[in-house]
Write a structure and sequence with these properties.
Oligomer: single chain
Structural class: mainly beta
Radius of gyration: 29 Å
Distance between the termini: 96 Å
Number of strands: 19
Largest sheet: 19 strands, antiparallel
Helix content: 10-25%
Shape: elongated
Number of helices: 3
Order of helices and strands: HEEEEEEEEEEHEEEEEEEEEH
């Protein structure tokens, strides 16, 4: 009886193995496929092919045998993916279109807290990226944005905002092709303006101001090509502008 049982198990194993990793007469992968690490026991991945194209769910594994990622092939062009840390916590999830990241991706840390949301098109950041406070999630379960960035082809381009953990603005400004531009402001926790400075091509210029919570000016400084001028240098610059009939940078 024992011999018969072993023969049955061997037959089942044999049929399973021979039912995997097959190609048709045209050399196309068909049906179930499994790939193993060099130990021959732990799977690298498992999934199904039809006419050489992956279909349905594929699972990828760490050498420890724990799940590394799950790919759900929804169409020939589009798939949805879940990546995992080796401690089995979700690392990130999002969509691929033609094997390139697309639309909104969620990212988590190894403790399971949301770290960021990123918007992709053609495998590049395009649109908003939001970075979140972890401490709020730990203490109160609240998901609050710490930083909002805007991208074009993975380059900072557009509005940029930082927030206090309370939700009020901490800093805001604009990037143009990776460089600070226009007026940038920082804020006191009560929402009043703390500092104001202007940028052009990523360099500070003109007068920068600092204020207290009541709006009273505390001091101002002058910037030229990204460098702060001391009193002596500023006097010389203003005198040179006057002699040349040039209006100083404002």
């Amino acid at each position: 009886m024992r011999i018969v049982f072993l023969l049955i198990l061997m037959g089942l194993f044999s049929s399973t193995v021979h039912g995997q990793n097959k190609k048709d007469s045209q050399g196309r992968k068909q049906g179930a496929w499994v790939k193993y690490y060099p130990d021959g026991k732990t799977m690298v991945y498992s999934g199904q092919f039809k006419d050489d194209q992956p279909v349905g769910e594929f699972r990828y594994y760490f050498e420890s045998g724990k799940i590394k990622s799950i790919v759900q092939h929804e169409t020939k062009e589009r798939s949805y993916v879940w990546f995992y840390f080796e401690n089995e916590q979700l690392m990130s999830e999002g969509q691929y279109v033609n094997q390139k990241k697309d639309s909104v991706w969620k990212n988590f840390n190894q403790q399971g807290f949301l770290v960021s949301l990123e918007t992709f098109k053609n495998n590049r950041l395009n649109g908003e990226k939001m970075i979140y406070y972890i401490q709020n999630q730990i203490e109160t379960g609240e998901v609050k944005c710490a930083q909002l960035e805007t991208y074009k082809d993975s380059i900072l381009h557009g509005p940029y905002v930082e927030f206090f953990s309370t939700g009020s603005k901490k800093q805001q400004g604009t990037y143009i092709l990776g460089k600070k531009a226009g007026t940038w402001e920082t804020y006191h926790p009560d929402g009043s303006v703390a500092t104001r400075i202007k940028f052009r091509e990523g360099k500070a210029y003109g007068y920068a101001y600092a204020y207290d919570e009541e709006g009273t000016e505390l001091y101002k400084s002058y910037w030229l090509d990204g460098k702060r001028l001391d009193a002596k240098a500023l006097d010389k610059y203003l005198t040179d502008c006057k002699n040349k009939g040039v209006i100083p940078e404002e």
